[in-house]
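note to self — DONT lose this again. spent like an hour looking for the file last time. sequence + predicted structure for the chain T wanted, 79 res
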Amino acid sequence: MSGYFKIVDAHDGGYRIKLMAGDGALVAVSTYYQTKPEAVAGIEEMREIAGTGPVADQSHSYHPSANAAGKQAFSGQRR
């Protein structure tokens, strides 16, 4: 099974989105959304970002091992 999005109740009355791996492991938790339609729109935004967004490597060091076989490991700009 592939990963999936889960809309859950937030403790303060709104909603959050959980991105789950196919095995049920939690991958990410979203920001707070006041309404369920806002949470659904947030899922669409996450899908767009995940599919097309560049990776901004803001880690403290570059790891050449992440650049296997001479392929560029990251797209986008390093900051």
